[in-house]
Amino acid sequence: MKAAHIVIVALSLVVTGCATPPEVKQALVAKDQAYAENQRLMEQYRELVSRVTERHQQWYRHVQTRLKLNLALQWATTNPKLADVADTELAKDDAELLGSDVIAFINDIRLKNLPDRKGPNGQIVFQAGTGDMSNLLQKLPELLSRIEQRVTKDSQASSTLDLTAFEQYRTNVGALRRINAIIKQYLDIDVTLPRDEVQSIAEAVRTLRR
Predict the structure, then answer these.
(1) Do 102 and 185 sit in the same domain of this protein?
(2) Residue 53 resides in a domain
(3) Residue 79 phi/psi, 5° resolution?
């Protein structure tokens, strides 16, 4: 590893108290600039990832809101059935997808003549309708609001962005730049670095190389 080799050479020179060749000092300056540039690029990449994830979440919420609104309106205005799914299983699955708060609201606006729909355990999931179309239309904005709340809650629980790798990278680059700065400080004045400090820095270098 070229960077580690430069650091080790510099440490050796500091320990012996020799005058430091300009090339070594220049290499340390260049290396610090490279660290700074790497960190800048990583921050840009992190921002890009965050923006893409945010756009993905926005699209996810839009699609899920439309799907759940359509499903809620089906149960509010019709008696849905699927040829290959038992009525009880369909009621159960759709209820889990919509959530208890939305189900309660659907039961409040279901149209007259729609029958009870039970789940596998015999419990009524969708109650027999008692409402009319006028009431349903008036309450559409509130139904949409409840569905949006449900979708937002689901999206927050399932799409948390993990930025741990970026934070670790920033920490490592910060450590490298501190080591670089300490070495350069001693090389600039051509003094002997105490051996215990050299050992501490060398341990840090070995850790970073793993």
Answers:
(1) no
(2) no
(3) -120, 80
Total structural domains in the chain? 2
List pLDDT tens digits, range 130-180: 999 999 999 999 999 999 999 988 877 555 556 676 677 677 777 777 776
Structure tokens at 2: 């070229």
Residue 34 falls within a domain, yes or no? yes
What is the pTM for the complete model shown?
Answer: 0.58
Kindly state the tokens that stand for 3.
Answer: 């960077």
Which two structure tokens, joined as six digits, stand for 118? 């039970």
- Pull the structure tokens for residue 65: 């809101």
88/28 same-domain check = no
